[in-house]
Amino acid sequence: MDAIPPSPPTAEALVRLRGLHLTVPSAAGPVNILRGIDLDLAAGETVGLVGPSGSGKTSLLMVLAGLEQVTAGSIRFAGRELTGLDEDALARWRRDSIGIVFQAFHLIPTMTALENVAVPLELAGRRDAAPRARAALEAVGLGHRLTHLPGQLSGGEQQRTALARALAPSPALLLADEPTGNLDQETGEAVMDLLFRQAAASGATLLLVTHDPGLAGRCGRCVHIADGRVVQIERGALASAPA
């Protein structure tokens, strides 16, 4: 399928991607993962990213997070060009501007829930790290679990701790990669309700990678990618439904 043109430029676009290519080496030769992605993300909007396995969804998220360097193209965030920044500059930008929630919880097993959430704030030099971490955990319903280690928490509680950690710095961009993949359906639905609610409350832009069309339909827009290209953009089915 041919790639579609990007949405018309908007003054409020927080993220602007143009001509993104990602090519990685392999034993069989270069593999083209992203093939010219053009996409704008407006401040405060929710976007579901869907497509078949191997289409480039997670790679696009990793590029947006500054965890993977593109081969070609432009990434602008709040008017700032990110391509070409060195690892230290990207790490500072990532610390100050984005929150990430993965399918795996990535909690430090020897630290309490409060410590797990506070660590990135402390590394950023935030003097209010502890009270801010406490407030973030209370916001996700874990005020009674502050001193529990990850091994003492359920899967849903661990993912809520990971969500609190992502939200505590008040990021402008929240990236979520199949955040309910390790949870049962009921727990996953509760976590997603919380994710959408907290993103809306904070005003963060949310990009959600998911295989679930129902979750994608809750987003304001749904972006379909295939073979490393954007092939369709539509309004979320639930977002566009009458209230």
Folded structure, characterized:
- With 243 residues, the protein is an alpha/beta fold.
- It has a single domain (44-67, 85-235), classed as P-loop containing nucleotide triphosphate hydrolases (Rossmann fold), CATH 3.40.50.
- The chain is built from seven helices and ten strands.
- The strands form two sheets. The chain has a six-stranded mixed β-sheet with strand order 6-7-8-3-9-10, with helices on both faces.
- A hairpin with a 2-residue loop joins strand 9 (221-226) and strand 10 (229-235).
- The longest helix has 18 residues, at 185-202.
- Residues 1-11 have low confidence and may be disordered.
Question: Can you summarize the main beta sheet?
Answer: 6 strands, mixed
Question: What is the string of SSEs from the N terminus onward?
Answer: EEEHEEHEHHHEHEHEE
Q: Can you give the mean pLDDT?
A: 90
Q: Count every beta strand, where a strand is a DSSP E run of 2 or more residues.
A: 10
User: Oligomerization state of this entry?
Assistant: single chain
